[in-house]
Amino acid sequence: QYRPRTNYNREGGDQRSYTPRPRTGGYNREGGDQRPYSPRPRFNSGEGGDQRSYTPRPRTGGYNQGGDRPYRPRTGGYNQGGGYNQGGGYNRPYRTRTADYNPNAKYSLKKQIEYKDILTDPNEPIRLNKFLANAGICSRREADEFITAGVVSVNGEVVTELGTKIKRTDEVKFHDEPVSIERKTYILLNKPKDCVTTSDDPQERKTVMDFVKGACKERIYPVGRLDRNTTGVLLLTNDGDLASKLTHPKYLKKKIYHVYCDKNVTKADLDQIAAGVTLDDGEIHADAISYASETDKSQVGIEIHSGKNRIVRRIFESLGYKVIKLDRVYFAGLTKKGLRRGDWRYLTEQEVNMLRMGSFE
User: Fold this and answer.
1) Helices (H) then strands (E): counts for the chain
2) Cα–Cα distance measured from residue 347 to residue 272, given in angstroms and rounded to the nearest whole number
3) Cα angle at 234 between 300 and 240, to 5 degrees?
4) Count of domains in the chain?
5) Which residues pair with 221 in a beta bridge?
6) What is the residue-averaged pLDDT of the chain?
7) How far apart are CA 356 and CA 351, in angstroms?
8) At residue 257, what are phi and psi to the nearest 5 degrees?
């Protein structure tokens, strides 16, 4: 049985008995004597005490928070017509993508980054073949052939001796044309499948270079290789010193792969890969390995430093699995975050300095 309790009378000190009011839609806030409660519609903006009919306003994009000001729909941010407007802001109109949309347009030559070569001493001697290679003329091996052929001169004198060192300030000519070291360029590509990692393919297959056309005027080339159907992080540059460092076995470069197998991988095999498996060219073990999905045991994430050819595929094949998809998600501190398959971007100054200093972990 309900027992009414006394309520504090805010108008004075004496207590008066509490009479419960019907809670059918709210309290009668007029005070004083009770009068029959008539529920009123929400958001009644009428003046005075009398109620007037409520006419709902159409909600075409949100509430009109400005009172009597006319409602102006927000044309930016979330596009309620079917997706997120990546143009950002609330006053920027949503633009649909046309057939000639180029996702790499923001990485035009005008916006190419000028990297500061903070680790190079301008007075340090440099081999002539390396100078020509850094100038984008040819490879070091080809440069040696041009030098012995007598088509390279330094400060007006023809040089034919291999191993000759020069200063960066010397005047070098190749076929009587002045040569200077070109600026360094670093490009990160999210490599798609069905293309080869090479600058030129005799079989005329699609190469990674087809995806970075127009990225720079410099002669760049891929650092290391990814199999034709392996996707993910790939660095392209004309920095020969950095490329050598990133491909040399003595420099430990962390690489993480997302592996998709043809069947579930057992926990025992994960432990075996971590402990080490024996392949034709020796024993190899993963630095870290785990399932990449909580529900799909055929997906595995593996961290490895080895740069041996097809090493990840061979590890799983040695245990009876077939790798149906392989994606490199991390390479020497670089990730493909924000890059769709087949897209590229310039490395940031911070990323380049990290690579130059060998901070690969």
Assistant:
1) 6, 19
2) 37
3) 135
4) 1
5) 237
6) 76
7) 9
8) -120, 145
pLDDT higher than threshold 80 for residue 344: yes
According to DSSP, residue 226 is labeled -
Asked if residue 165 belongs to a domain, the reply is: yes
User: Within a 10 A sphere around the Cβ of 250, how many other Cβ atoms?
Assistant: 5
The model's pTM is 0.59
The helix (run of H) or strand (run of E) holding residue 348 is none
Q: Residue 178 burial (CB < 10 Å; 0-12/13-18/19+)?
A: exposed
116 within 8 A of 183, measured Cβ to Cβ: no
CA atoms within 13 A on the CB side of 241: 15
Please write the tens of the pLDDT for every residue from 181-238: 778 899 999 999 999 998 888 888 899 999 998 888 888 889 988 999 999 999 999 8
In this structure, the strands spanning 221-222 and 230-237 are antiparallel
Active centre residues (catalytic): 227
What tokens were used for 325?
Answer: 């998809």
**Whether pLDDT at 360 is above 70:** no
* Phi-psi label, residue 289: left if phi above 0, alpha if psi -120 to 50, beta otherwise: beta
Lookup result for tokens 């080339």: 221
Domain range for 173? 126-179
Q: Please check whether residue 185 lies inside any domain of the structure.
A: no
Q: CA-to-CA distance for 122 and 82, rounded, in angstroms?
A: 56
**DSSP-assigned states of every residue in 266-297:** PHHHHHHHHH-EEETTEEE--SEEEES-SS-T
- In 3D, which of 170, 182, 181, 183 has the Cα closest to residue 123? 170
| Alpha-carbon distances of 198 from 140, 207, 308, 318, 334, rounded to whole Å | 17, 6, 17, 28, 20
Residue 132 lies in a domain: yes
Residue 130 lies in a domain: yes
Q: In CATH, what number is assigned to the domain containing residue 172?
A: 3.10.290.10
**Which among 109, 314, 126 has a CA at the least distance from the CA of 217?**
109
Burial of residue 119 (CB within 10 Å: 0-12, 13-18, 19+) is exposed
Contacts 24+ apart (CB under 8 A), 104-109: 104/215, 104/343, 104/344, 104/345, 107/215, 107/344, 107/345, 107/346, 109/214, 109/215, 109/216, 109/217
